[in-house]
């Protein structure tokens, strides 16, 4: 389900990012994809020259790595029509998590699943600009960022495009709220890339964490993958920027200690935290009780399983608890420093 | 003693100071270093004492000899036994955004100390030091300090008893008063002897050491420790930081303060081996906390220096050289299960286990460490960093 422009504007309002509507000239965006089908959105000012070949080398993809993305990919993943790809399109949940599986076969087995994001590159010139304009997910409107809220409306009939003004750090705020850092890049630069100088934009190449392959017999006990908890779903205080994390397939590591690597979900609510703890314990218990271990330990199996829970889960869960505690304290602290004393 | 240190450095043997760690022979002789610096070995008896006092198993790093030297740690334990508390002080020089596992070692150990002894912790981010030595701009070093703070927080420190501060933000007030007091007790000759400064060095360098010294004194943090001037300090750090605290311990009695205690770690080896240098410009010399599972697998398989023999027959015959083998060394840092580590060492040393298997196990262990860190890191927000770095009271810091 893609975001509509109303939802986007509502979201911006929620984040208390001030915006004003405006008319203005448009910004160019380039939608590119590389050989491994990773997508890049490159947003540049109208007069910045963007050379795909140079960018390709700077990203570490070699000289011909980047090419324009086909329209179907845009439709499917970014859910915007052609010409409307903008930094805001990364708000769509589908854009944040793209599952590319090789040979998605009939079995439930997924081999070598790679998860990647769309990588967003913004012209560093945006930061210097008073105003930058982006289509907010539809081509009859544009969002613009402006340092000051000066509104000069020279007649609404000229305004084919209404836009919203945001301060430059507010775009950053928005991007952070959906889990993207501010990826400002000098798009015109052409630094030499060689053995001694690694590709300077290599960090922008989306690389999810590749998880270890899934042994088929434990596939059923794995938790569903790709539940991407985005900050938009959390009922979180408006100003706190939460980072949306990608989830990974829950895995069993082959070998003696059967540990479950669970989806990295930000446990901000106590319900989620407890669910996760219970899930982890349950999967561990299930993995420990097999035919072999029943034969091996017999009546002692209960003791063995509980010891292994203590050993493996103990420290794991303590980490979770610390994260939860720190988050709760931070939210309280933040509320405290913004507290407005009662008017007398 | 400082003059001897200088002479030995000139002989080209082993150089260990906060800005340089190198050895002409490649390997660092830790026994010699302990003698040279004048600190003490962390004996097995002390480790057992920690276990008894805290009723918890000692940390992996203690059991495996990663933290191997100390100054006055036994006195801290004596005081603790009497019911007297202490506080922890550690820090990081934020020179780069990318942190690798070696950087996390002191923090992982400090977290263990905080949890088992239930004491407060101050963490100093020496952004000024990096601004001076690495010639970064003030803004850049401050930015790096904040970024590094996030990774440090991700190590799992308790926000109700941890105060993180950056020098540029915090120096002043009582902290600065202590800095001047310390600086009044140390001559130029002394710092030249300890740190190797020269007449051509900028005065910023020469005036920096007090900044790293004064967090050892509780009066530097009036918002935390006011009225507790006798509170002792324990400093977990890598052994190359010892010079700062030799100087501090020398000065403390003259100021009427307690000498800080230290507990020191060995150096984390580079992937390519003891002789290799871990450097920020070579991404393959270490495992970074931002590495993906695939990166880790690739780095370990391709670059981790193996002590195995060159052919399978030779390996079965002679076994592996555990002294130089990096996968085994890394496993001894990060694999918790003592029995398994012993087993691997035995089988691999005898030639029954192959390098590939050891590397495979290492990849699993490291992937888990990095994953856990990444997950914790993702939960760190800007507001959380602000909260950790806020000058605020910590009412339950000793409970």
From TrEMBL, chain A:
Region (Disordered): 185-265
Organism classification: Eukaryota, Viridiplantae, Streptophyta, Embryophyta, Tracheophyta
Family to which this protein belongs: Belongs to the PRORSD1 family.
Coiled coil segments of this chain: none
Classification via InterPro entries: ProX/PRXD1, YbaK/aa-tRNA-synt-asso_dom_sf, YbaK/aa-tRNA-synth-assoc-dom
Organism listed in the record: Dillenia turbinata
Occurrences of domain YbaK/aminoacyl-tRNA synthetase-associated (ranges): 24-139
GO molecular function, one term: aminoacyl-tRNA deacylase activity
Any Pfam family the entry gives: tRNA_edit
Annotated protein name in UniProt: YbaK/aminoacyl-tRNA synthetase-associated domain
Biased composition, class Polar residues, residue ranges: 218-230
From TrEMBL, chain B:
Enzyme nomenclature, EC number: 6.1.1.2
Keywords tagged on the record: Aminoacyl-tRNA synthetase, ATP-binding, Cytoplasm, Ligase, Nucleotide-binding, Protein biosynthesis
Any single GO BP term: reproductive structure development
Subcellular location: Cytoplasm
Classification via SUPFAM superfamilies: Nucleotidylyl transferase (SSF52374)
Residues spanning the membrane: none
Pfam families: tRNA-synt_1b
GO molecular function: ATP binding; tryptophan-tRNA ligase activity
Claim: NADP is one of the keywords in the record: no
GO CC terms: cytoplasm
InterPro entries assigned to the protein according to its UniProt record, in alphabetical order: aa-tRNA-synth_I_CS, aa-tRNA-synth_Ic, Rossmann-like_a/b/a_fold, Trp-tRNA-ligase
Similarity annotation: Belongs to the class-I aminoacyl-tRNA synthetase family.
Name used for this protein in its record: Tryptophan--tRNA ligase, cytoplasmic
Organism: Dillenia turbinata
């Amino acid at each position: 389900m893609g975001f509509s422009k109303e939802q986007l504007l509502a979201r911006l309002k929620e984040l208390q990012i001030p915006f004003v509507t405006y008319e203005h000239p448009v910004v160019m965006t380039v939608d590119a994809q590389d050989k491994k089908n990773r997508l890049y959105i490159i947003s540049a000012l109208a007069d910045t020259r963007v050379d795909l070949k140079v960018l390709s080398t700077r990203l570490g993809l070699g000289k011909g790595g980047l090419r324009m993305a086909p329209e179907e990919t845009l439709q499917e993943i970014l859910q915007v029509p052609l010409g409307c790809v903008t930094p805001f399109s990364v708000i769509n949940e589908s854009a944040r998590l793209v599952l590319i599986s090789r040979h998605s076969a009939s079995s439930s087995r997924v081999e070598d699943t790679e998860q990647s994001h769309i990588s967003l590159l913004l012209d560093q010139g945006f930061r210097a600009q008073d105003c930058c304009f982006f289509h907010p997910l539809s081509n009859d409107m544009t969002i613009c960022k402006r340092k000051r809220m000066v509104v000069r409306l020279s007649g609404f009939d000229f305004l084919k495009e209404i836009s919203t003004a945001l301060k430059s750090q507010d775009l950053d705020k928005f991007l952070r709220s959906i889990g993207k850092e501010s990826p400002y890049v000098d798009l015109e630069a052409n630094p030499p890339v060689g053995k001694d100088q690694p590709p300077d934009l290599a960090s922008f190449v989306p690389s999810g964490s590749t998880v270890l392959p899934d042994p088929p017999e434990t596939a059923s006990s794995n938790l569903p993958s790709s539940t991407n908890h985005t900050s938009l779903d959390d009922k979180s205080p408006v100003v706190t920027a939460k980072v949306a994390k990608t989830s990974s397939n829950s895995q069993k590591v082959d070998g003696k200690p059967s540990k479950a690597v669970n989806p990295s979900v930000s446990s901000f609510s106590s319900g989620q935290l407890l669910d996760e703890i219970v899930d982890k314990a349950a999967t561990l218990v299930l993995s420990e009780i097999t035919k072999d271990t029943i034969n091996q330990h017999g009546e002692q199996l209960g003791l063995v399983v509980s010891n292994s829970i203590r050993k493996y889960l103990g420290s794991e869960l303590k980490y979770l608890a610390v994260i939860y505690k720190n988050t709760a304290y931070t939210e309280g602290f933040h509320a405290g420093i913004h507290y407005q004393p009662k008017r007398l | 003693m400082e003059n001897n240190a200088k002479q030995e450095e000139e002989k080209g043997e082993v150089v260990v100071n906060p800005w340089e760690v190198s050895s002409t022979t490649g390997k660092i002789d830790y026994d010699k270093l302990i003698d040279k610096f004048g600190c003490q070995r962390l004996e097995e008896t002390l480790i057992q004492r920690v276990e008894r006092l805290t009723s918890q198993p000692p940390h992996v790093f203690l059991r495996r000899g990663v933290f191997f030297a100390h100054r006055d740690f036994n006195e801290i334990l004596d005081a603790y036994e009497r019911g007297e508390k202490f506080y922890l002080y550690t820090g990081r020089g934020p020179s780069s955004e990318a942190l690798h596992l070696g950087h996390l070692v002191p923090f992982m150990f400090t977290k263990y100390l905080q949890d088992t002894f239930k004491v407060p912790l101050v963490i100093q981010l020496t952004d000024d030091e990096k601004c001076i030595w690495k010639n970064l701009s003030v803004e850049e070093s401050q930015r790096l300090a904040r970024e590094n703070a996030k990774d440090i927080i991700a190590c799992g420190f308790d926000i109700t008893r941890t105060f993180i501060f950056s020098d540029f933000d915090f120096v002043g007030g009582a902290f600065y008063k202590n800095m001047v007091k310390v600086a009044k007790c140390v001559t130029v000759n002394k710092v030249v002897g300890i740190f190797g400064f020269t007449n051509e060095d900028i005065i910023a360098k020469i005036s920096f050491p007090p900044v790293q010294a004064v967090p050892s004194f509780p009066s530097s943090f009036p918002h935390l420790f006011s009225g507790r001037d006798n509170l002792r300090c324990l400093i977990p750090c890598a052994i190359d930081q010892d010079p700062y605290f030799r100087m501090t311990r020398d000065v403390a009695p003259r100021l009427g303060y307690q000498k800080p205690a230290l507990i020191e770690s060995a150096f984390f080896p580079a992937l390519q081996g003891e002789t290799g240098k871990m450097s920020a410009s070579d991404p393959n010399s270490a495992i970074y906390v931002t590495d993906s599972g695939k990166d880790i697998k690739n780095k370990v398989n391709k670059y981790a220096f193996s002590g195995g023999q060159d052919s399978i027959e030779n390996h079965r015959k002679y076994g592996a050289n555990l002294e130089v083998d990096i996968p085994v060394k890394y496993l001894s840092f990060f694999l918790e299960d003592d029995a398994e580590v012993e087993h691997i060492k035995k089988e691999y040393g005898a030639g029954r286990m192959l390098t590939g298997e050891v590397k495979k196990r290492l990849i699993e262990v490291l992937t888990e460490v990095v994953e856990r860190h990444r997950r914790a890191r993702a939960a760190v927000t800007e507001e959380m960093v602000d909260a950790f770095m806020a000058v605020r009271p910590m009412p339950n810091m000793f409970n």
